Amino acid sequence: xxxxxxxxxxxxxxxxxxxxxxxxxxxxxxxxxxxxxxxxxxxxxxxxxxxxxxxxxxxxxxxxxxxxxxxxxxxxxxxxxxxxxxxxxxxxxxxxxxxxxxxxxxxxxxxxxxxxxxxxxxxxxxxxxxxxxxxxxxxxxxxxxxxxxxxxxxxxxxxxxxxxxxxxxxxxxxxxxxxxxxxxxxxxxxxxxxxxxxxxxxxxxxxxxxxxxxxxxxxxxxxxxxxxxxxxxxxxxxxxxxxxxxxxxxxxxxxxxxxxxxxxxxxxxxxxxxxxxxxxxxxxxxxxxxxxxxxxxxxxxxxxxxxxxxxxxxxxxxxxxxxxxxxxxxxxxxxxxxxxxxxxxxxxxxxxxxxxxxxxxxxxxxxxxxxxxxxxxxxxxxxxxxxxxxxxxxxxxxxxxxxxxxxxxxxxxxxxxxxxxxxxxxxxxxxxxxxxxxxxxxxxxxxxxxxxxxxxxxxxxxxxxxxxxxxxxxxxxxxxxxxxxxxxxxxxxxxxxxxxxxxxxxxxxxxxxxxxxxxxxxxxxxxxxxxxxxxxxxxxxxxxxxxxxxxxxxxxxxxxxxxxxxxxxxxx
Length: 572
What we know:
- By secondary structure, the chain is an alpha/beta fold.
- It has three domains: 87-308, ABC transporter type 1, transmembrane domain (ABC transporter transmembrane region fold), CATH 1.20.1560.10; 314-323 and 334-410 and 492-499 and 522-572, Rossmann fold (3-Layer(aba) Sandwich); 417-489, Rossmann fold, CATH 3.40.50.300.
- The chain has helices at 5-41, 47-94, 99-104, 107-149, 151-157, 160-198, 200-205, 209-235, 237-261, 267-308, 374-381, 404-408, 425-430, 438-447, 451-456, 474-488, 504-518, 553-559, 562-569, and strands at residues 335-342, 351-358, 363-367, 389-394, 397-398, 411-414, 423-424, 464-465, 492-496, 522-526, 538-543, 546-551.
- The longest helix has 48 residues, at 47-94.
- The protein is elongated.
């Protein structure tokens, strides 16, 4: 923000100069009025002098308009730059935050900070800033001009300032908390709407419309009440200022008439002074009116900078290593878990004492009941979170000794929850390898057994998927994510229920493709259907965050333990 201060000072200077040239107008009109009265009393009206005065007035107003235009032009550029910078900072910050932030905060609230809150700041900079500078310059200039006409009337006029400031400060102290609450619940409303739109089919399937509407109504009710209170309180500012200014105006009119009778002031000066006092109340009212906007802006800015100042994901160690490209070979990576310990919160440990070793090129299956910690192990392996104790090692080195981006470039993931973006099918497959050629895309699609159905779609590989990619089936989306992983050609594969959304026949085809893909790679497979991991080199059976059994399929069946019970239950 400091980079824009010189431009903002320049814009303030232009606004002040514009206000000064505008302020001179009533004084010139007063002089013209006195000239007209004096010359008329002599029977010789000085039309030439009056014409010159009016011409000078037109020139001054023209100059004021020019400076006002330049000020608006400068502030428009500053506003656009600040808005862009804030959105850039928020978006970059979003990618530096730890995963725990997104576990605790709705996407809609974050979206509201980028859109609503930044827009509020933008509007204030573009409009209210100029109004404040112009009003302050006008107040200062008008006060000086009023003193040159009558110091007595000026002192009477200045009585409205402390009365107005007291009224405004009294209201602001009571309304600011409601403006903050209004911005917070605007984010809550946006978050709920975003969540309901993304899960609309689930809401309808479970007849959850009523509960959704009730929750929305609760958020909206709080938003309604906080917005109503904040707007009501801030709305009192203008009427109060109007009443104060009218009372002062009435007193000035009476006092001015008295001074005119005593020959202490001329008719032209009274005319000019009354114009000034009306002009004096306008910037004062404008400042008090802007106070309403400033309160909302303060709440928005608090939310924006609160987000920007959040603690980043812990940085890589100072001497973090890059994984050498020549080491990025399919059969060149081993992974070891050594007494790994982790909990999303300090008082709730999920992974207690996890130890396992995956030799280069091995296929490791992780099985266990829901909540055993299977997916958490994968998140730790990818360094979405760091272990609280123990270590995870890649080729004997702690993964925390590598840069995150370098470490993650080694892995390829296929998750149960598919993610595709708005774009063509080809672009979605190419996401795994941005410089992939068309031939490589088609080859990956064929390996994932997705080529046939893509060619049957209108547009084929150039068909555009919509925002939620719901113009294709869930199974087809899963096939595309597998193709995306295949084209990335990762050194280590992570498959989290990768075939859960495809039919049995497609699952067989995908399983063959996966077997080929995993042949020379270290692979981690999370599975609930135990029939899909019978050929794994090592099966880790997890329960309550610990490995309670490990071995290959035959060895675990022979133990007649937890795994054997799980396996047999799927076929009973």
